[in-house]
Design goal:
This protein is an alpha+beta fold. Helix content is 26%, strand content 28%. It contains 11 helices and 21 strands. Strands 8-14-11-16-9 form a 5-stranded antiparallel sheet. Strand 18, helix 10 and strand 19 form a beta-alpha-beta unit. The chain is globular and about 70 Å long.
Length: 348
């Protein structure tokens, strides 16, 4: 076997879907990745094993077998098939037998999923709520007029407004900081904010300016990913904030409708629904559900006009993390949206 290659971002860039990540994300993954050398005649994993790690075959040959030992396919290092993760459903549904000595890159599956979600929610961290209106409008009325809030049960709405906390803020005060854990959902009740994103070695990029009635911060709470932008007050103002646990219980759950695979199939087969795969195109091309439409999560807001208004959209990804964000965003925009329970890893 060749000398072990260095685990660099450049190596990860050749692998799917890691090649689509931002440079800083690939660097983070490279620091946390490991190399695995396994002798011929041994198993990389067996059916029923927990899939904590995403495994990419660099060298050697692996047979993918069903639990009874039947050979389904072979994967050889340095081929197109080896650019993709070996089957990563959890628990494992297949076995990976080493025909020769093999070398793999192992990356924490949870970390990879968080990185994919974080990178693709760049354009989603800001939820716009009627920003065309002027500051004198009643922020609570405007919030209740949005499609998403109209779906929340009245008892939940009452609890939301009772549990919201008022925060007075001065010009230049930072409300949320990029990289920190999400803790609150915010609504601007007075004043204006600026949203910026830091890039290593570069000046902060200005993403948006928010006015009274805008809300932000929900995607980090849904995906459990760090904040991907910083929000700073431009003027003196005030905000109402809802704690993470209250947001999930009172707002996220009523708006995040989940369906099992059988329900999703029935909706699609009847013509009343459509599978919307929000993974990257490289992931989608490696396999998805029949008839699914692929719009990556980071492009979702920009391509809303391409989605049918008269069908239920069943959002899908590997784990349910990115699809939960997508269905929440779509519900905010007035679509009938669902999340496939457990994601594609457990879809069939």
């Amino acid at each position: 076997m060749n000398p072990a290659p260095p685990l660099t971002p450049e190596l990860l860039a050749k692998l799917i879907p890691m090649g689509a990540l931002r440079p800083e994300s690939k660097r983070d993954l490279a620091r946390n990745a490991t190399l695995m050398d396994v002798k011929a005649g041994r198993f990389l994993f067996k059916a029923g094993d927990k899939a904590d790690q995403a495994l990419y075959l660099l060298e050697g040959q692996v047979e993918l077998r069903d639990p009874s030992g039947g050979v389904l396919s072979k994967v050889i290092g340095e081929t197109a098939a080896a650019q993709h993760r070996l089957p990563h459903q959890s628990p494992r549904k297949l076995e990976a037998f080493c025909v020769t000595d093999v070398r793999c890159v192992a990356v924490d599956n949870h970390l990879l999923d968080v990185m994919l979600t974080w990178d693709q929610t760049d354009a989603l961290e800001v939820g716009e709520v009627g920003t065309e209106s002027n500051d004198s409008d009643d922020w609570m009325t405007r919030l209740l007029q949005t499609p998403a809030f109209q779906m929340v049960p009245p008892a939940n709405l009452q609890a939301i407004f009772m549990r919201m906390q008022r925060v007075d803020a001065a010009p230049g005060q930072t409300i949320v900081t990029q990289g920190e854990a999400g803790d609150f959902f915010y609504v601007i009740t007075e004043g204006r904010c600026i949203v910026t994103r830091e890039q290593p070695g570069q000046k902060a990029v200005r993403l948006a300016e928010l006015e009274t009635g805008s809300c932000f911060g929900e995607e980090a709470l849904i995906s459990d990913a760090p904040r991907n932008a910083t929000v700073t007050m431009l003027t003196r103002g005030s905000l109402m904030r809802l704690a993470k646990d209250d947001f999930r219980k009172l707002l996220k759950e009523p708006l995040t409708r989940r369906v099992a695979r059988a329900e999703g199939d029935a909706l699609v087969e009847s013509g009343r629904g459509l599978y919307l795969d929000v993974r990257l195109p490289s992931e989608f091309q490696n396999g998805s559900l029949p008839g699914a439409l692929n719009i990556p999560l980071y492009m979702l807001r920009m391509r809303l006009a391409q989605l049918p208004q008269n069908k239920g959209l069943v959002c899908i990804c590997d784990t349910g993390r990115r699809s939960s964000v997508a269905s929440f965003v779509l519900t905010q925009k007035g679509f009938e949206a669902y999340t496939l329970t457990s994601g594609l890893n457990d879809a069939g």
